[in-house]
Specification:
Layout lengths: L3 E3 L11 E7 L2 H11 L4 H4 L1 H5 L10 H14 L7 E9 L8 E12 L4 E9 L5 E10 L6 E3 L15 H8 L4 E6 L4 H12 L3 E7 L1 H11 L7 E4 L3 H13 L5 E4 L4 H8 L13 E7 L7 E4 L9 H17 L6 E5 L10 H14 L7 E6 L1 H5 L1 H6 L12 E3 L3 H13 L4 E7 L5 E2 L7 H23 L1
Parallel strand pairs: 8-9, 8-11, 9-10, 11-18, 13-16, 14-15, 14-16
Antiparallel strand pairs: 1-7, 2-4, 3-6, 4-5, 5-6, 12-13, 12-17, 17-18
Helix pairs in contact: 5-15, 6-7, 8-9
């Protein structure tokens, strides 16, 4: 639609005069309309819920389609200065993300002396099918107007923290003991205090006691009630934390002010480590404002060039976490640059193999599909444009990346360009490991601790069942 709008006065209008306006529906349009209207029916917002309904997919609010008619009347025919009196609507077919809707109005009656105009209204989709029809009664403008629209404000759909429900669940459960490994900086000490005060983790501080107390003084917090396991240096702190986890005295490890490699080396040590049959891997549990649900990116921090076997474990680790959080059948998109298998692109071969492995039961508890390009994995419109038929495309819960560099860049782009919040966990060891950064906001640190706590408790509950 042009930024400059010109109207048609009552005297200019003619019977049979028509105007049209087209708009493609995107998933974020539905979310934004729901936020504005407070119509939060799951048939519009919850793909899993809608999949079990008669249509099998989410649909737009009916008034979104009707709004295209109003927009056309107000902007083009008759245009600026028009006053709407009545609009009658009959919905004929649902509108889904990816549909391009063309609204049309036609002058059918001019009522002299009142400037009243009756318009026939219809909306059709890209297949020419009618989705709405009706009529409108308006007062046409009496004077010619040319109006230039100002720049509309940019909008970003920010859902209330999608992990807040998990945080609330975790707070309601008994605290679990967490080893805070080498908390010898202001940020690390504050992190330990935060998770304790939030009712999530009971911190056991492991590291050089003098340095820990100095960091607490710098942070201006009291260590009263906290236990300190004194060690000589960061290597010893990592080894001690792993030993305590091995003996069941702590249920979570939290990285303090030591390097991640130092902590993870102790975790995977062949003597006294916390290894399992699985490859350890990192998950970013992300709250992306522009995406309609939580999503996990893996692996973005540990496995540099994972093999096919490693990717199987990376996938299963993320699936298991999703299932512990209550999602029975998460959707996993195996990412590549394209959505077709190309022998010259190893990531597509791995993706195809992982898809078959899931079908053969080598990956369990999830719907797995790939290769999928990023847009096809998270956008129903992009998947529909490419003609991709998939239970995963357009609605992925887990994004499995080809390698660490791709995952790291993807996660940080989502954080810095898209305003995402990312909770970081290491999975595949006998206890979850919280990897936090000094740059992480409080919401990310709290979400990481909450997910670790829920993973511990729910895994124990399932083991006891």
């Amino acid at each position: 639609m042009s930024d400059t709008l010109t109207n048609r006065t009552f005297d200019q209008l003619q019977i049979g005069e028509r105007a049209t306006l087209s708009r493609t529906l995107h998933r974020e349009d539905i979310s934004l309309f729901a936020a504005l209207s407070q119509d939060t029916s799951p048939v519009h917002l919850d793909a899993a819920f809608a999949a079990g309904g008669p249509l099998g997919h989410i649909v737009a609010h009916g008034m979104w389609t009707a709004g295209l008619v109003s927009a056309l009347i107000g902007a083009r025919l008759p245009g600026p200065g028009t006053v709407s009196l009545e609009q009658r609507i009959r919905y004929l077919s649902p509108v889904a993300p990816g549909d391009t809707i063309t609204s049309a109005v036609e002058v059918t009656e001019l009522i002299a002396g009142t400037r009243h105009v009756r318009l026939a209204t219809v909306c059709t989709n890209q297949r020419g099918e009618k989705v709405l029809e009706g009529e409108a009664l308006v007062i046409a403008p009496g004077a010619h107007v040319t109006w230039t629209a100002g720049r509309l404000p940019e909008t970003v759909i920010r859902h209330p923290g999608r992990y807040q429900g998990f945080v609330d669940q975790a707070r309601a459960l008994p605290m679990v003991t967490a080893a805070i490994v080498h908390p010898c900086s202001k940020a690390a000490i504050l992190g330990a205090v935060e998770v304790r005060d939030e009712g999530l983790l009971d911190p056991l501080l492991i590291g050089p006691e003098a340095r820990i107390r100095a960091a607490a003084d710098e942070a201006g917090v009291s260590l009263d009630g906290m236990v300190i396991e004194n060690t000589q240096h960061s290597h010893a702190a990592a080894a001690r934390a792993v030993d305590l986890a091995d003996r069941g005295r702590v249920s979570v490890l939290v990285k303090g002010s030591l390097h991640s490699d130092e902590l993870l080396a102790a975790v995977v040590s062949k003597t006294g480590g916390l290894r399992t049959e699985r490859r350890i891997s990192h998950v970013y549990a992300m709250d992306v404002p522009a995406y309609g649900k939580p999503v996990m990116v893996t692996d973005a921090a540990i496995n540099i060039l994972p093999t096919l076997e490693h990717k199987r474990d990376i996938c299963q680790n993320a699936v298991d976490l999703m299932r512990l959080l209550g999602m029975d059948l998460p959707r996993v998109a195996i990412l590549a640059a394209v959505e077709t298998v190309n022998p010259g692109m190893p990531a597509t071969l791995d993706a195809a193999a992982l898809t078959v492995m899931a079908a053969r039961g080598q990956i369990t508890g999830a719907l797995v599909d790939g290769p999928l390009a990023f847009d096809n994995a998270i956008s129903p419109e992009a998947a529909a444009t490419k003609g991709i038929t998939s239970p995963v495309a357009g609605q992925a819960d887990i994004l499995l990346v080809p390698d660490l560099e791709a995952g790291n860049m993807l996660a940080k782009q989502l954080i810095y360009f898209a305003g995402a919040t990312a909770a970081g966990l290491v999975l595949g060891a006998r206890v979850p490991i919280v990897l936090t950064s000094r740059a992480d906001p409080l919401s990310a640190r709290i979400a990481s601790a909450a997910l670790a706590k829920l993973a511990v408790i729910r895994k124990a509950e399932r083991g006891a069942a």
